[in-house]
Design a protein that fits this description.
Blueprint (H helix, E strand, L loop, with lengths): L1 H19 L1 H29 L3 H6 L25 E5 L3 E5 L7 E4 L2 E4 H19 L9
Antiparallel strand pairs: 1-2, 2-3, 3-4
Length: about 140
């Protein structure tokens, strides 16, 4: 107990010397200024990298084609054609939803499965992992 008290007193003395010494205070102040300068330079560089180019900004004023829908493959859907929603996902995966199909599909590496099957499989895998991490957790919903 006595050693801890002495350590606190020594730290207090050291802190008092650092905070009252004008050279140490100037050094801490300079570190703050340099840090702020580095942060400002980094933020300015990031701003330049994310800024859109002039061509992209010029396109903002143009109107989009009217009554045009995009279907799978990125092609324009013709009149009377129902567009199919298609989204590319990470890990070579694609999501498609045909309005006439009973459910959306997920295609991964050539294997096509219904979205409901993928969701059920994910839930089952989650339950298995959750049970492996903590065997006291049951598969029942909370």
């Amino acid at each position: 107990m006595f050693v801890a008290f002495e350590a606190v007193q020594h730290l207090r003395t050291l802190l008092n010397l650092v905070l009252t010494n004008s050279e140490a205070r100037k050094l801490l102040s300079d570190f703050g200024v340099i840090g702020r300068d580095l942060l400002a330079r980094g933020a300015a560089k990031a701003a330049e990298n994310i800024r859109p180019d002039e061509e992209q900004l010029a396109k903002v004023d143009h109107t989009a084609p009217q009554d045009q829908f995009v279907t799978e493959g990125g092609r324009a859907a013709g009149p009377g054609e129902k567009p199919i929603v298609e989204a590319k996902l990470p890990f070579d995966t694609a999501f498609k939803h045909d309005p006439d199909a009973p459910q959306p599909t997920v295609e991964r590496r050539g294997e096509v499965r219904g979205a409901g099957d993928v969701i059920d499989s994910g839930r089952q895998q989650f339950s298995e992992v959750r049970g492996a991490v903590d065997p006291h957790i049951s598969g029942a919903k909370e």
